[in-house]
Amino acid sequence: MGQFIDLSAADGQKITAYEARPVGRPRGAVVVIQEIFGVNSHIRAVADGYAQEGYLAVAPSTFHRVKADVELGYSDADMQAGFAIKLKVDELPAPGVMQDVQAAIDHAARESGGKVGIVGYCWGGLLTWRAACTLTGLAAAVPYYGGGMTTPEESARQPKVPVLAHFAEQDQWIAMDTIEAFRKAHSDVQVYTYPAHHGFNCDQRGAWHEPSAKQARERTLAFFAQHVD
Question: pLDDT for 153-202, tens place per residue?
Fold first, then answer.
């Protein structure tokens, strides 16, 4: 359904992105932010899924400035490799990868002619939260189990658009007490938790929990229908 395209960031850097177009005129657009495994088959499938719902979907490679064409699986070795690249991305001088996310938002707005939502998973969930708080051109944001977004530093940020956040109750990376603290700090954010582990949305991971993934997707689609359509 989709294809890889090039985006241009504000500093002139070219980055790749996977774009999936719907049949007919888009009802809006959704930017899909990857995990630490690259724009792999799962992330492309997620983008295709939003295109099937009528949205123009764009998944930028948030690794591109450090390493191009990353496509990892979900083994321990893949996780270590992805985490190493992610650390290098974190070390980029500001604004770093956020300008690439902005480029994807701007492209999605131009190509769809409508409003733009953003959704991200794991590290992408953190970037989605930061995008909701710092970037322009968004109408809604949905972070899934954003690693680090419940820390005091990240929780201190204030979103500029409506946010729906999904967390896992058995997440070894994000403690429930930090989720509850985040919920109290952001009464305007819709926070849902699920009886699952980190990564429950990904059907290529052992942590996949189909009932939780299904319910979270239904809530996300309803949220985008309210704010992006």
Answer: 999 999 999 999 999 999 999 999 999 999 999 999 999 999 999 999 99
What is the reported pTM? 0.98
Round the CA-based radius of gyration of the chain to a whole number and report it: 16
Length of the chain: 229
Q: Positive or negative CA dihedral for 229, 46, 65, 95?
A: positive
Q: How many separate domains does the chain show?
A: 1
CATH number where 145 lies: 3.40.50.1820
pLDDT, tens digit (0-9, with 9 covering 90-100), for 7-30: 999 999 999 999 999 999 999 999
Amino acid residing at 52:
Q
Close Cβ partners of 194 (under 8 Å, ≥ 6 residues apart): 166, 167, 168, 169, 200, 209, 212, 215, 216
Helix (H) or strand (E) holding 37: none
Alpha-carbon distance of 195 to 71, in angstroms, equals 29
